[in-house]
Amino acid sequence: MPLDIVTVPCLSDNYAYLVQGPDGVCIIDAPEAGPLIDALEARGWTPGVILLTHHHHDHVGGVAELRAKYGCKVMGPKAEEDKLPPLDMGLAEGMNGGTGEGYTVPIEVPGHTLGHMAFHFPEGGVVFTADSLMALGCGRVFEGTPEMMWASLSRLRALPPETLVCSGHEYTLSNARFALTIDPGNDALQARVAAVQAARDEGRPTAQVPLSEELATNPFLRASEPAVKAALGMDGATDAEVFAEIRKRKDNF
Prior knowledge:
Elements (H helix, E strand, L loop, with lengths): L3 E7 L3 E8 L2 E5 L4 H11 L3 E5 L5 H4 L2 H8 L2 E5 L11 E3 L13 E4 L8 E5 L4 E5 L2 E2 L2 E2 L7 H12 L6 E4 L4 H11 L4 H15 L6 E3 H7 L8 H6 L7 H13 L2
Parallel strand pairs: 3-4, 4-5, 5-6, 9-12
Antiparallel strand pairs: 1-2, 2-3, 7-8, 8-9, 10-11, 12-13
């Protein structure tokens, strides 16, 4: 059965996700319980598991209430077990699970936090990236290094280009404004910025996008592109050095 994915806005600009597949319903991140409970009950769904990407409160704040209501298992990166709500299972790479389109592959993507994890559903064609790869951007490098974050993004950009990327925040418009300062001659980016503005004017979410579109427009994924290096005056720099410069500029944007 194909995955049924529901995008659930939480807090002021977070997204959580409900995923119904052949093994039941899982929740990807739990910023707050109320909107998730409303979305579940509107569909008559009962979650079996909560998958957590990293320890920041705006991704785990609803865990206790959801666990108390539904008795669901909680899983997340073992590397952050001491910072997360109590886990029923700490996850590391290789601990894949599920069947069919629900088959789930944890990918370690440190940088934003040291234990940050993405969840790839290869048969379902989707990856949940939270605050690693984001629409037209990436998360701040709070705990890792730029080199670490670039390595993580490089792993994600190597996924099949048709993969749907579902990230954790509605930051796309501000990311778009910044992207234009790095890659102003990119026609695909110009078109995407207009589409994002139109979507937000209509109140539609924009943090769910095919990887192919990210590869064509996200400056953080394009740090290896000669045109981007030239625009920054960094022709001889390594890809990681170019990424670090782009991230520094975004931090100060």
